[in-house]
Write a structure and sequence with these properties.
Elements lengths: L3 H9 L9 H13 L2 H13 L4 H31 L3 H26 L12
């Protein structure tokens, strides 16, 4: 498995490291996900604890929507390229990931909209 220095050097050359087995891919994904989990959870919990009203959620949700939108476009582009190269299974997984990302993006947009309080409607008799 490539260490950080090897990956950095290859990036300077315009190349990236590719893992050769499914186990290596799983291992690096797990390592990247779980090694930083406590710090990430603490950072996000601390940020969330500072929110004081519904409007305070808005900037983060709008930024998150933008990041998800970029991810969705990226996944769709990868799917098209994989399909064009004849990698049907890979294209199928990328399509599912793009669809899921689009669904999350729509929910984040709805959450951002929900930060604006509904106007008070007086009760009438």
């Amino acid at each position: 498995m490539a260490n950080a220095l090897t990956r950095w050097f290859m990036a300077l050359l315009g190349k990236s490291w590719a893992y050769e087995t499914v186990d290596q891919v799983r291992e690096v994904i797990a390592k990247n996900s779980f090694d930083s989990l406590p710090e990430r959870a603490q950072e996000h919990a601390k940020g969330a604890a500072g929110l004081t009203d519904s409007y305070a959620f808005q900037p983060g949700l709008v930024d998150l929507h933008d990041e998800l939108h970029d991810t969705w476009i990226y996944l769709a582009s990868l799917k098209g390229r994989a399909r064009g190269m004849g990698y049907a299974s890979l294209a199928g997984h990328l399509e599912a990931a793009a669809d899921s990302t689009r669904d999350v993006m729509e929910q984040v947009a709805s959450a951002a909209e929900a930060t604006v309080p509904a106007p008070q409607v007086p009760l009438t008799r």
